[in-house]
Design goal:
about 35% helix, alpha/beta, about 20% strand, about 525 residues
Length: about 525
C-alpha cells in the first residue's frame, strides 16, 4: 500500500521523484489552460509560463489528462506531472472532492514504478486532503498476486511496475487535528476498498465460500469485530433454503457470515447484506458463452459489505453495524437445483425457482430475513444482481430501490457525496403480479422488462415488518471491463464501500432519522 504523509515542504525543496500539480480548462471557448492553486511555486519557477509550456505539449486541462515535463532548475525532483482537473470552478467555488480524487488517482497511476511523489493539488480545507489521499491510494492500486514478478534484478529494472510507493501531500498540516483525521479516514476507507478489490479480483478457484469466510474471520480478529460463520450443517439446521438451494450444486458448500461491529456510544443499528456468489455459472440455467469469464465478480456485494464493516470498526464510528455475507457458488451438477424446484426459505416462504441464474436474490432473501430478526434501524443490501439495471443505467452507475422514499433519497445523496454515481429507481407494484406462482408463494423471476425492479420487489418480500430497507444493484460499476479512468482500475472497483461507510457516518452523526 502506498504510504502517505502530510507535508509543509516547498515543492522546490522536496526530495522526490516527481511533483504533481493540477491544471484545468479555463471558462469559455478561449479560456485556455489554467494552473490550479497549489502549483504557484512551480509556476513561478517556470517564470509564470507553466500554462503556455503545457499547452505547447498538448495539454488542455481535461479531466484525468496527464502531462509530464522536466522540472525547472533548482528543483530537487526531476519531473513535474500536470494532471487535469476538468473545468475551472465558477467564482467563489472550489474544486469538488471527486475532481480532486480523480486527478490524484490518475496521477498516482501514471507514476507506477516511482518511489516518491509530492502532490501539490488544490487544498482549501482538510476535506480536500482527504479526497486527494483517497484518490492517490485508489489510483495506485494494482492486483498482481498471480503475475510472475521475475528475479530481483528484473524488479529493479526498467520494466518494474510496482505501485507508487510514497506520496507527500503538500499543503497538508501535520499538526492540525482536522487534517490528520481526514488523512486517517482516507487511509482506512481506501485500504478497505482496495481489500474489496482484491477479493473481487481473486480467481474463484482460490476464493470459494469457505475461503471468503476465512478472510473475514482473520480481519474480524484483527479489528475486534465479532464474527459468526454458519457452515452447511448450521444452514441446514436453520432452514436457510435459499442459500442452500443455490450452493447445493457445488463441491464448495455455502456459508453465511455475520460480522458485528458495536460501539458503546451507538444509538442506531445498521444491517448491511451482501450477495456473495463466489462464482456464478448460472447453474442449470447455464449462462451463454461469453458471459462466464468475469463471474468471479458476483461476490462484489459481499466484498463491499465486508470492507464497510471493517472500515466502520477502524474509524470507531458511533453506530452499530452488522454485516451479513451470503456466500455460495452457483454450479450445474447432478445435485444442483433445477428450474421448477421449490425452495423453502428461512422466512418460511416458498419460492418456485424458474431460473437458476436468478440466484443472487435467493441468497439475499435468506440473509435479509435473518438480519431482520435483530430489528435494525435500516437494512441495506448490495448486489451485482441484474443485467437489466446495467441496461437502464450503464456500466458506471448503480441503482437504488427502497421501501421508503426519504431513505432512498438519503442513500442516493450520500452516494453522490462520496463520489459513487447512483440513481433512485421505483418499485412499481404492478410488476409483483409477474412473480405469482401456481405452486409456491412466489417465483424467483417475473416480467423481463423492468427486471431490475422485479428483483427489488422480490427482495422486499423478505424484509421484516416495519424495517426501513434499501437495495443497491451494483451490477454495472462493480467490475470495470473497460479502460482505467480516474482512480478506477480495470477489474474489481470496490464500488458501494464508500456509500455504506458514508451512511454509517451520517447515521452516527444523527443526520438520518
Amino acid at each position: 500500500m502506498t504510504a502517505l504523509t502530510l507535508s509543509t515542504a516547498a515543492a522546490s525543496g522536496l526530495r522526490a521523484d516527481a511533483i504533481v500539480v493540477g491544471v484545468a480548462k479555463g471558462a469559455g471557448s478561449k479560456g485556455g489552460l489554467v494552473v490550479a492553486l497549489g502549483a504557484e511555486a512551480v509556476d513561478k519557477a517556470y517564470d509564470g509560463k507553466l500554462a503556455s509550456v503545457l499547452e505547447t505539449l498538448g495539454a488542455s486541462g481535461g479531466e484525468g489528462e496527464v502531462t509530464k515535463l522536466p522540472a525547472p532548475s533548482g528543483f530537487k525532483a526531476p519531473v513535474v506531472v500536470a494532471v487535469g482537473l476538468g473545468e475551472v470552478p465558477e467564482k467563489d467555488e472550489t474544486y469538488g472532492s471527486d475532481a480532486l480524487r480523480r486527478a490524484a488517482g490518475a496521477a498516482a497511476r501514471a507514476l507506477t514504478g516511482v518511489k516518491k511523489a509530492g502532490f501539490a493539488l488544490p487544498v482549501d480545507e482538510a476535506g480536500d486532503i482527504g479526497a486527494i489521499a483517497e484518490g492517490a491510494l485508489l489510483g495506485a492500486y494494482a492486483f498482481d498476486a498471480y503475475k510472475d514478478q521475475g528475479d530481483a534484478k528484473a524488479k529493479k529494472g526498467k520494466d518494474a511496475k510496482a505501485p507508487l510507493a510514497e506520496v507527500a501531500l503538500l499543503g497538508g498540516k501535520p499538526r492540525d487535528k482536522a487534517y490528520k483525521a481526514a488523512l486517517e479516514r482516507a487511509v482506512a476507507v481506501a485500504e478497505e476498498m482496495n481489500r474489496a478489490r482484491d477479493l473481487i479480483n481473486t480467481p474463484p478457484n482460490d476464493l470459494n465460500p469457505e475461503a471468503f469466510a476465512a478472510v473475514a474471520t482473520a480481519a474480524a480478529k484483527e479489528h475486534g469485530i465479532k464474527i459468526q460463520v454458519l457452515d452447511e450443517k448450521a444452514l441446514t439446521k436453520g432452514g436457510f433454503g435459499g442459500i442452500l438451494g443455490v450452493g447445493v450444486g457445488s463441491d464448495s458448500p455455502p456459508r453465511l457470515v455475520k460480522l458485528s461491529y458495536t460501539s458503546s456510544k451507538a444509538k442506531k443499528h445498521l444491517a448491511f447484506v451482501g450477495k456473495g456468489i463466489t462464482y456464478d455459472s448460472g447453474g442449470i440455467s447455464l449462462k451463454p458463452a461469453g458471459h462466464n469469464e468475469t463471474m468471479k465478480c458476483d461476490m462484489a456485494g459481499a466484498a463491499a459489505v465486508f470492507a464497510a464493516v471493517v472500515a466502520a470498526a477502524r474509524l470507531g464510528l458511533e453506530v452499530n453495524v452488522t454485516g451479513w455475507l451470503a456466500l455460495a457458488e452457483n454450479m450445474p451438477s447432478g445435485s444442483a437445483t433445477r428450474p421448477g424446484d421449490v425452495l423453502r426459505m428461512y422466512s418460511g416462504k416458498t419460492v418456485e425457482v424458474l431460473n437458476t441464474d436468478a440466484e443472487g436474490r435467493l441468497v439475499l432473501a435468506d440473509a435479509i430475513a435473518k438480519a431482520s430478526e435483530d430489528k435494525p434501524d435500516a437494512i441495506v443490501d448490495v448486489a451485482t444482481l441484474t443485467g437489466a439495471m446495467m441496461v437502464a443505467l450503464g456500466s458506471r452507475t448503480f441503482g437504488i430501490v427502497a421501501n421508503d422514499d426519504a431513505f432512498r433519497t438519503s442513500v442516493h445523496e450520500i452516494a453522490e457525496e462520496v463520489g459513487e454515481p447512483s440513481w433512485p429507481m421505483p418499485l412499481p407494484g404492478h410488476l409483483r403480479k409477474g412473480m405469482e406462482s401456481p405452486t409456491a408463494d412466489i417465483a424467483n423471476i417475473g416480467e423481463r422488462m423492468g427486471g431490475g425492479l422485479v428483483a427489488g420487489l422480490f427482495l422486499q418480500e423478505f424484509v421484516g415488518e416495519g424495517i426501513t430497507w434499501a437495495h443497491l444493484d451494483i451490477a454495472g460499476p462493480a467490475f470495470n471491463e473497460g479502460g482505467t479512468f480516474g482512480y478506477t482500475p480495470k477489474g474489481g472497483t470496490g464500488t458501494a464501500v464508500r456509500t455504506l461507510v458514508g451512511l454509517a457516518e451520517h447515521t452516527a452523526a444523527g443526520d438520518l432519522g
